[in-house]
Specification:
The protein is mainly β and 351 residues long. The protein folds into three domains: 3-118, Jelly Rolls; 127-220, Jelly Rolls; 250-350, Jelly Rolls. The protein contains no helices and 28 strands. The protein has a five-stranded antiparallel sheet, with no helix packed on it.
Length: 351
């Protein structure tokens, strides 16, 4: 005897819907929908950062899609995949977790295709793959964890400062980054890699600012500088957010007026609850001191840049918007006999 579901007057031998949670990055879905069930539509919500392929539609559902209803060929097997056929020209991002919700709708349900909504997110997933805290100022290195085959970019976060950053693929021996300079690097740098060629990477450096310097590695499946989104079969546009001309960006903040370098000389005063972002600066060395260094620090004394002062002239540095701890300002410091006559300026924002 049949059981009544759904709209009035309709009798089904099986429930009219079959819901499935499909975890991002999971193996291809092959769900038995049950005897007598013939799906004709699929209701999809995909809040993950990955594209979802539905072979019985066939179509691709972009990341951040909610409530899309798609017609499919009649089937008693629910199928879906996170592996996107090459004909769609889509570079699948590295999974950051989450799950899609699929509801297979029986053919007797009165429903029309719906495009649903999208949150317009910019897909910039980063997955942590290892870190190192230095034990001293000498050369050190570490090997990353496993990088997915789709990895295209390594991001390296540096707090404290290291020189001559090198990145080498363990499996192939390919050198992706070769550092030769003696200037300390801090903040965030990106290095293009080939995850299909190397699954782990050695990150090394010649010197550091000393014990406690922190170096962290992240991987992304997006090409350096912009998302590799490809084009969906439906020809959908990808919404992006563009800053208003009336809203100044952080790096448009003016340079701080130069000050003489001295221990604890505050360049940017601390403001409770606000974060300083250090973008760039310059140290004008007016008195050369062998082994001397001028440090750029937060007002708690943690160093972000060390500049050698053993030769006269201007020494610029880049920090790429490195954030300082909340509630701290920016100051200069003298190390190993550097002269207080040297001049320091920084470009920053504070918000």
């Amino acid at each position: 005897m049949g059981v009544e579901f759904g709209r009035s007057g309709t009798i089904y031998d099986a429930p009219p819907v079959h819901p499935v949670d499909f975890a991002s990055g999971a193996a291809d879905l092959e769900e038995d929908l049950g005897a007598g069930f013939q799906a004709a539509h699929i209701w999809v919500t995909n809040p993950t950062n990955q594209y979802l392929y539905l072979p019985d539609v066939p179509d691709v559902v972009p990341p951040g899609t909610f409530g899309r209803v798609l017609p499919c060929r009649n089937t008693d097997v629910g199928r879906a995949s996170w592996t996107i056929p090459s004909r769609y020209g889509i570079q699948q991002p590295v999974s950051t977790g989450g799950k899609a919700i699929l509801i297979f709708l029986n053919g007797g349900i009165d429903v029309s295709p719906q495009s649903g909504t999208t949150d317009g997110r910019t897909q910039l997933p980063w997955q942590a793959v290892g870190s190192k805290t230095t034990v001293g100022a000498a050369a050190e290195n570490f090997v990353t964890g496993i990088v997915p085959a789709g990895g295209l970019t390594l991001g390296i976060s540096i707090v404290g400062g290291i020189t001559s950053v090198n990145v080498t693929g363990v499996q192939s021996g390919t050198t992706y980054e070769l550092g030769t300079g003696s200037q300390f690097q801090v903040g965030w740098i990106t290095v293009p890699i080939n995850g299909a060629l190397d699954s782990t990477y050695t990150i090394s450096w010649n010197t550091s600012a000393g014990a406690g310097t922190r170096v962290k590695a992240f991987v992304s499946a997006l090409a350096m500088g912009y998302p590799t989104l490809g084009q969906s079969a439906m020809g959908e546009s990808i919404p992006v957010a563009i800053a208003s001309d009336q809203t100044p960006l952080p790096w448009q903040a003016p340079n701080k007026a130069p000050k003489v370098a001295s221990g604890g000389n505050v360049l940017v005063a601390a403001v409770a609850g606000q974060t300083c972002y250090l973008y760039s600066g310059n140290v004008a060395v007016r008195v050369a001191v062998a082994g001397g260094r001028v440090a750029i620090q937060d007002t708690a004394g943690t160093g972000y840049v060390d500049v050698a002062t053993d030769a006269l002239g201007n020494v610029p540095f880049e920090c790429h918007g490195s954030p300082l701890p909340v509630g701290l300002g920016i100051q200069s410091g003298l190390i190993s006999g550097a002269s207080a006559s040297d001049i320091v300026s920084v470009s920053f924002s504070q918000a």
